[in-house]
Amino acid sequence: MVRARQPSPQTAAVLTALAEAGAGWSHGYDLCRALGLKAGTVYPILIRLAERGQVETSWETGPPRGRPPRHRYRLTTAGAELARAVAAPARAGGRAPAPGPARAAPGSA
Fold first, then answer.
1. CATH class label, 27-91
2. Domain ranges of the chain
3. How far is CA 39 from each of CA 23, 27, 30, 47, 49, rounded to the nearest angstrom?
4. How many CB atoms lie within 10 A of CB 27?
5. What is the pLDDT of residue 62?
6. Are 92 and 86 in contact (CB under 8 A)?
7. Prediction pTM value
């Protein structure tokens, strides 16, 4: 029997923030700020979720003048299902997925 591991609180927070953005794209920097997590935590999570097919990535097109393009992230269907599964125990009184001080939804482009 294979036992599925529960995502870490940080991974759960990233999934929840991306789910809150809906079909919109989010930038990693915005996720870091909104969740109160460091880039060294958020970007490896995003990469791991992308490798598992739970997050879709894309380069920003047409960035503002003087700024390089940034990577954008959003949940795939599989990622949205995982985010719902992670949120269910939190709604039922389980552990909360938010490790950081702020829980505002990240900005999306």
1. mainly alpha
2. 27-91
3. 23, 11, 10, 12, 15
4. 17
5. 84
6. no
7. 0.77
Burial of 76 (0-12, 13-18, 19+ CB in 10 A): middle
Summarize pLDDT for 4-35 with one digit per residue, the tens: 778 999 999 999 999 999 999 999 999 999 99
Do residues 55 and 46 lie in contact, with contact meaning Cβ atoms separated by under 8 Å? yes
Concatenating the DSSP letter of every residue in the chain gives -PPPPPPPHHHHHHHHHHHHTTTS-EEHHHHHHHHT--HHHHHHHHHHHHHTTSEEEEE-SSPPTTS---EEEEE-HHHHHHHHHHHHHHHTTS--S--SS--PPPPB-
Query: Could you read off the pLDDT of 59-83 as tens digits, one per residue?
Result: 988 888 998 889 999 999 999 999 9
Closest CA to 80 of 39, 2, 24, 10: 24
pLDDT tens for residues 73-109?
999 999 999 999 988 766 655 554 445 544 444 454 4
